[in-house]
Specification:
With 284 residues, the protein is mostly helical. It has helices spanning 3-28, 30-52, 64-86, 89-96, 100-109, 116-138, 146-174, 176-198, 210-229, 237-243, 246-257, 264-282.
Length: 284
Amino acid sequence: MNPGLLGLIAAAAWGVHDVIGARVSAEIGAAKTATAVTLFGLILLTLWLLIAGGFPTMGMERAWLPALSGVFLALATIWLFAAMAAGSVSLAVPIVMSYPATSLLLGALAGRTPDLAQMLYAAFVIAGVVLVARSETGAGDKLSDPRRAIIFALLSHATFAIGNFIGQYAATIYGAIPATWISRIGGSAAILPLLLLTTPKPGEIPHGWLPFLMLMGGLDVFALSMLNLGGHTSQPELAVVTASAAGVIAILLAWVFFKERISPLRWIGIIMTFSGVAALTAHQ
């Protein structure tokens, strides 16, 4: 299995997830959106495991690992939606999706030192994403609270990196889908009390948004399963690196379907990012 290709598949799913999430969270709030996506993902995964089989059969004494991963990922999702609500997709998402640098560092600490070419390709990906973010800010976009957006995006960046790192390791123990299922249980257990404590009328969600939330839940667990599947490869952090292209995919989708303006500088960043992704995917 090519970890770069698995990450690219995850990026496509998360790109669609993020561009829908930006619209939904602006309407119903970040906490409600993240909670609904987490719960729908858990329901869909449970149905899949009931039909196809594959519930964890190994000892559950280490189940705290994927559960902890789910807690980090649930927090990361809330902070991602909060960052997009406070600022814009093009400011928040690239900051969040630049966490491959952190993932490569975590991989190096675990004894999987990337070679020079991989570090250069990863730097190229991150440079492209940063250029996209800078072009958005420099194009005169009016942000409601850019400092708040950046703080939430950095929190999401850190928790995504840690959650994915733990989740990939857990996938080597339980398998990609079972580990993702356990992580959803952990995420749901963490996010529900947070919703109840911080959100007035937490159960009120307009029915028209439910199909979109269900779709987001399916896309999220599919992408996470692809990323956890990368945990079975020799360099799982490469899947995380290519998954960072989700931010650029989200921006492209917003440009196509929502007619958002993309400046020439941002196009350069998009080309840089996908060039780096292609190089990482091909490199073994």
